[in-house]
Write a structure and sequence with these properties.
The complex is a heterodimer of chains A (530) and B (320).
Chain A: H1 2-17, E1 30-35, H2 50-59, E2 64-66, E3 80-82, E4 85-90, E5 96-101, H3 115-126, H4 135-140, H5 142-145, E6 148-155, E7 158-163, H6 170-174, H7 187-193, E8 207-213, E9 217-222, E10 235-240, H8 244-252, E11 258-260, H9 264-272, E12 276-278, E13 285-290, H10 300-309, H11 312-319, E14 324-326, H12 342-345, H13 349-358, E15 365-372, H14 381-393, E16 397-404, H15 406-415, E17 422-427, H16 433-439, H17 457-468, H18 472-488, E18 492-498, E19 502-504, E20 508-509, E21 525-526
Parallel strand pairs in A: 1-10, 1-11, 15-16, 15-17
Antiparallel strand pairs in A: 2-3, 4-5, 5-7, 6-7, 8-9, 9-10, 11-19, 12-19, 13-17, 13-18, 14-18, 20-21
Helix pairs in contact in A: 10-13, 17-18
Chain B: H1 2-29, H2 34-39, H3 45-55, H4 61-73, H5 87-122, H6 127-141, H7 144-158, H8 177-211, H9 214-221, H10 226-256, H11 258-263, H12 269-278, H13 282-310, H14 312-319
Helix pairs in contact in B: 1-13, 5-6, 5-8, 5-10, 5-13, 6-8, 7-8, 8-10, 10-13, 12-13, 13-14
Classes of the chains: A alpha+beta (530), B mainly alpha (320).
Chain lengths: 530, 320
């Protein structure tokens, strides 16, 4: 019976594991990356989260992209560069964007890229009356297209986007990944596959989709006809390994070449063993929203005291072992509007106690923090909340921690703070427009991600001037003013900026950690002889 | 016997309907909104509402349930809300992977657990008995998660015999049986640890009990060799409870391999179910639970049939 059982198991294993065949081509120039979770759909416009955009961005490109070949320490803010738009012009009133679409580009399925292809894609994300409209794509990219009035292909390679108001962050919003990616899909593939486009990706990027076996791998192959720098790698395979210890084991055993999100306490050991550490400073803030409807959190002095009582340096160094930096502004340093404010966010327990005494709370009070226990880009939220709990106990603030699993938390977070004092979240963008998304009165939950119901007309007025400035450069000054106002009023409590560490095997060369959440693999190669 | 099988098959329909109904109702209680899950942190309420409409989540719970049930009756398991693919396309490969792992673990359980229990019973209170029962107790007590990491540490990282995770070699997928088997060894051992211990201890206990029965004493008094008593007389009587325990362990394996799947990144149904539950992806969860329930019912039916064949008294009870 045992022999029969073994035979059946072998037979099942043979047909179960094979997956669809193909995959990596077996030679040494295929890079294998152990990623932290299964990716979302391979439809760049409908997908959510950085994990998926790191894969989609190898196949799909927006009109405007980031320079991800310059490391974070050389470019704190990633520069914009032409993507599928070779160049663009903005009218003096900031209402009209004219994009010159590249002429030498074909999609992976052979379709030529032209202005109409781009218009077809934009209508999928924005025009409810178009047949290709997708509510999911529209929801994901809402912040990009919200002020768009009309889109028109004026000739084969010229596309005009008209706005109903100036929107200075538009170009940077076009380059965003994760939520709100505008990667352009082959219109032929969209027509052919409709809802199933995620199973038949066809973009213009440096890598071509090869196969996806859910839970096992997503394999991409080099696009030899790529319009830009053709990658050195033959292909790249993304392997989901959800357990951090499993990822460390996989790189130690040589099964993968790179791992994402190593656990903070494993990084030092792996580096000692000869693995490379690559990290940068992407626009990523781990922060707390204060519930403005809470009797204590509504008091500015209380919010300021909490900001001054938190030991950001200690958390970054001791708890997170250098995988994050203390956050001294609401915006991350990978943002032109960054203003360092150690006076507001450096630790000063005496001043915190003074502030609490000024409002009669020297004996403290009880409050709560709601946090997820895991989740995309959330670092280690529960231990971080406990660290904050200990810090606040030193100024007599008693904190209860409410934890939830990530997806449940996301739903709870989207509804607004409700009856908790503070809520945790971790994200950010390289456009200062992110401040508007998380603090403006227009975005108060559940209508948007302002989960603490923060409402400050003075801040809103300055942000409005920033948004409607004709160009990004003119807007930066207003955004910096907005940061100062938000900091002085303690609108949020930024805690740390993630350094997004990657562990690379010794033979991986050319990996660059730019100031962004995703990476460009065109310069990566594998050198087993070095 | 035939009547018993017919009755059990009839009741299966009701069991499965109950599973569908209960899982559906329980999922209504899980916090979180699939539309918000899809759109993520930056979603506005309007966008969430539009996606809810697109997915049909704006309908009443009753309409959603009956529309789903109607689909099931025509063999349509629906589309995943989050992956946007037909549910069966996602579930079937995952289910097959879980079956591979569970079956391999079961083979280990039977091949090692039953002989271990028999030998321990025959050497009762001897050194083999004490050591094997201590080891099996430890096996049943050790968290699978920890055991998995230890196995990886020793056999993958120190000795380099087996890969640490996954089900196939991503550099050369489709590498054949040997390739896949290498990936199967450690997860199967980890998954087998608890049921193997239970089966070994149960076998030992049943054999010891049976060997103390009066008829065994009579057989011994008649001069029948001990070996013949054990294999011809004792084992036949001891088998029904052992088979029942093995049947129950199959159910445990199917539900319990999720931890093994996480530690070894085994792309099975358990981990998919966990993810789908947390994303409130109703069609995926329903189909996953239905598959597990179906297998559980079938295994129970097979177990009862086997016990019936082994023990005529059970047949009489049912048909009486």
């Amino acid at each position: 019976m045992v022999a029969a059982g073994l035979a059946v198991t072998l037979a099942l294993a043979a047909c179960g594991g094979g997956g669809g065949g193909g995959g990596g081509n077996g030679d040494d120039q295929t890079l294998i990356i152990g990623i932290e979770s299964e990716a979302d759909v391979l439809d760049p416009q409908a997908a959510g989260g950085w994990v998926t955009w790191r894969i989609n961005s190898q196949m799909y490109e927006p009109l405007v992209m980031h320079d991800l070949q310059t490391p974070s320490d050389e470019a704190a803010v990633p520069e914009l560069r032409p993507g599928l738009a070779e160049s663009w012009e903005i009218s003096d009133d900031g209402l009209e964007y004219t994009f010159e679409i590249r002429e030498d580009v074909t999609f992976h399925d052979g379709t030529d890229l032209d202005a109409e292809a781009v218009e077809y894609n934009i209508r999928r994300m924005w025009d409810e009356s178009s047949p290709q409209y997708s509510a999911t794509a529209a929801g994901q990219t809402n912040f990009v297209w919200q002020f768009v009035d009309e889109v028109e292909s004026v000739d084969e390679h010229t596309l005009v986007v008209r706005m109903n108001q100036p929107f200075s962050p538009f170009l940077r919003m076009l380059a965003q990944g994760g939520n709100g990616s505008t990667g352009i899909i082959s219109p032929t593939a969209l027509e052919e596959h409709g809802e199933d486009i995620a199973e038949h990706p066809s973009g213009t990027g440096p890598f071509v989709f090869e196969e996806r076996v859910r839970g096992e791998r997503i394999a991409l192959a080099r696009n030899d006809d790529y319009w830009g720098e053709v990658p050195d790698l033959d292909g790249v395979i993304f392997v989901p390994i959800p357990d951090p210890a499993g990822r460390s084991a996989a790189i130690r055993s040589g099964e993968v070449d790179v791992i994402a999100v190593p656990s903070p306490d494993s990084v030092e050991q792996l580096v000692d063993e000869g693995f490379q550490l690559s990290d940068g400073q992407p626009p990523h803030v781990w922060y707390l929203s204060f519930n403005m409807e809470d009797e204590y959190m509504a008091i500015p002095e209380v919010r300021q005291a909490i900001n001054l009582a938190i030991d950001r340096e200690g958390m970054a160094t001791n708890l997170l072992r250098g995988t994050a930096e203390p956050a001294y502004d609401i915006q991350a340093p990978a943002n032109d509007a960054y203003v360092e404010r150690t006076d507001a966010y450096g630790r000063d327990l005496d001043r915190a106690r003074e502030l609490l005494a000024e409002v009669g709370l020297e004996d403290g009070f009880s409050t709560s923090i709601a946090t997820s226990v895991d989740g995309s880009g959330q670092i280690v939220p529960a231990p971080m909340a406990e660290f904050i709990q200990q810090n606040l106990a030193e100024v007599n603030i008693d904190v209860q921690i409410q934890t939830m699993e990530w997806i449940s938390y996301l739903g709870r977070w989207g509804e607004g703070a409700g009856d908790v004092g503070m809520m945790q979240m971790s994200w950010g963008m390289d456009t200062p427009y992110w401040l508007y998304i998380v603090t403006s009165a227009d975005m108060i939950a559940p209508n948007g991600p302002n989960t603490g119901y923060y409402d400050n007309p003075q801040l809103d007025a300055v942000m409005q001037r920033a948004i409607t400035a004709p160009t990004e450069e003119e807007a930066v000054e207003f955004w910096q003013q907005a940061n100062q106002i938000a900091t002085d009023d303690a609108a949020l409590a930024p805690i740390v900026n993630d350094r997004a560490p990657y562990i690379l095997a010794p033979h991986v060369e050319g990996w660059v950690s730019a100031s962004q959440e995703w990476y460009d693999l065109t310069g990566v190669s594998l050198d087993f002889e070095g | 016997m035939a009547l018993m099988i017919a009755r059990r098959l009839g009741s299966t329909v009701f069991v499965l309907f109950g599973v569908v109904l209960i899982v559906f109702l329980l999922l209504q209680l899980v916090p979180g909104d699939p539309a918000r899950t899809i759109l993520g942190a930056g979603a506005t309420e309007d966008a969430v509402e539009a996606v809810r409409r697109e997915l049909g989540l704006d309908q009443s719970v009753a309409v959603q349930f009956f529309s789903y049930l109607g689909g099931l009756l025509t063999g349509d398991f629906g589309r995943s809300l989050t992956i946007n693919q037909p549910v069966l396309d996602i579930i079937l490969p995952r289910f097959q992977n879980t079956l591979v792992l569970s079956f391999a673990a079961l083979v280990l359980c039977i091949a090692i657990g039953v002989p271990l229990g028999i030998i321990a019973a025959r050497k009762q209170y001897g050194i083999f008995d004490r050591v094997s029962m201590f080891v099996s107790l430890a096996g049943a007590s050790v968290p699978v998660y920890w055991l998995g990491l230890m196995l990886i540490g020793i056999f993958s990282l120190q000795l380099g015999w087996f890969p640490t995770s996954g089900m196939t070699n991503p550099r050369s997928p489709g590498g054949g049986v040997t390739d896949n088997l290498v990936y199967l060894v450690l997860p199967a051992i980890a998954a087998a640890s608890v049921p193997l211990a239970v089966i070994a201890r149960m076998t030992r206990s049943v054999i010891v009990d049976t060997m103390e029965q009066d008829y065994i004493r009579t057989l011994r008094a008649s001069g029948i060799p001990e070996r013949s008593i054990l294999w011809k007389h004792c084992l036949r009587n001891a088998l029904p409870p052992i088979v029942t325990v093995i049947g129950l362990q199959i159910g445990y394996l199917l539900g319990g391999v999720i931890f093994v799947e996480v530690v070894f990144s085994w792309p099975g149904l358990g981990y998919q179910l966990y993810t789908s539950i947390t994303q409130n992806d109703m069609p995926l969860v329903q189909a996953g639970v239905l598959f597990i329930a179906l297998v559980f019912v079938i295994v129970n039916l097979l177990t009862d049939t086997a016990v019936g064949l082994l023990d005529p008294r059970t047949r009489r009870k049912v048909t009486a």
